[in-house]
Amino acid sequence: MDDDFFGELNFLHYAMFAAFILSALELLNFLIKLSGQTAVTRFGSISYIPVRGKHLDELSVKDYFFISLNKAATPPFVYFLLRYLYFEPNSQWDLTFGESLSVVTVVLPLPFLFIIYDFFYTILHWTLHLKAVYGYIHKHHHHQKAPSRANVDAVNVHPIEFFLGEYNHLLAVFIWCNVCGMRLHIVSVVLFLALGGTMASLNHTRFDIEMSLPFGLFSRRTSSKRPRSKLTIYDTKAHDVHHRIPQSNYGQYIMFWDWIFGTFRPYNKTDRINPKAQLDHTIGKSLEYIEIEEKTLKKSS
Fold first, then answer.
1. Which residues pair with 212 in a beta bridge?
2. What are the beta bridge partners of residue 184?
3. pTM: predicted TM-score of the whole model, two decimal places
């Protein structure tokens, strides 16, 4: 590749690149919310995770500041990731189907990238919950105990946490390409980021979404009389549990390492539900908040 490519970029190129990445983030958030609304409109209902923690109905100035700061930090991260891949010998950019663009370079790396990423993220997330550290960084994210705003709630974290979480993707790519010496196509990296962004956003909605291995592969029998249960790969309820019970489910995308480390806590659908804490999904506010607003409005009028 041309070693002078990045040196030839000017301010306009960087501005257009930043605008593209930020637009992609907004589009992702819009599509995730639209997918839920479409499901309600087209199929009549969608399964929501009941609210058990307190919903953060109003974002503060600090929340908006951190959200804006973290969104602004996303284009530089993507730039440095692409720059690394541009000069990485094991990175593949040729879009012609064949040895460069193949199942081995696009599909095969994906599960390993998620496993590598979540190994370090699980440890990082656990560290951020240590008593000596928690109040300075990660506590801000846990003001919201019932996430509902998708990407907005996902990026509503302390900038230090956002930086570490984002560049952990680059670390996963580096380990796969440089440490393991495996080839990786740029298409696989785009899928890694897109799928990761989608899963992280869905984790911060009330949508009850679960992905399991198909056809009962690697399934396990829960009892001698019951049918086999599929192995769950991803479940939005797992992260909802973490927001209510912080000392559990530290993984970002998968619960594999929580199973290994013994920090996995399954979702318990029998946990108590406060009816007033439930959300009006058309406006994203709790029923208790709406009731208080209505009473305030009546008093003022």
1. 232
2. 91
3. 0.89
Q: Using the predicted structure, report yes or no on whether residue 80 has a pLDDT greater than 80.
A: yes
CA nearest 193: which of 213, 209, 175, 170? 170
The packing angle between helices 186-202 and 159-174, to 10°, is 140
The full set of domain ranges for the chain reads 12-300
pLDDT at 33: 79
Burial bucket for residue 148 (CB in 10 Å: 0-12, 13-18, 19+): buried
Residue 291 Cα to chain centre, angstroms: 32
Res. 55: pLDDT tops 80: yes
Q: Tell me: pLDDT of 182 over 60.
A: yes
Query: What is the average per-residue pLDDT within 218-233?
Result: 51
Helix 186-202, helix 11-43: angle, nearest 10: 50
Here the tokens at position 196 are: 């990761």
Taking the CA of residue 260 as centre, how many other CA atoms within 13 Å lie in the half-sphere pointing to its CB?
A: 11
Work out the average pLDDT over 48-75. 96
- The Cα 129–Cα 141 span in angstroms is 11
Give the DSSP per-residue string, 57-76: -S--HHHHHHHHHHHHHHHH
CA distance 92 to 3: 15
Q: 214 vs 298, which has greater pLDDT?
A: 298
Taking the C-alpha atoms of residue 149 and residue 28, their distance in angstroms, rounded to an integer, is: 12
Pair 177, 184: CB distance under 8 Å: yes
Rounded to whole angstroms, the Cα distance separating 228 from 298 reads: 55
Report H helices in 107-222: 109-128, 131-134, 151-154, 159-174, 186-202
- Average pLDDT over every residue of 182-189: 97
**Predicted pLDDT at 224:** 45
Give the separation between CA 222 and CA 229, rounded to whole angstroms: 7
- 182 and 91 in contact (C-beta within 8 Å)? no
What pLDDT shows up at residue 34? 78
Phi/psi for 212 (5° steps) reads -125, 160
Name the β-bridge partners of 97.
Answer: 101
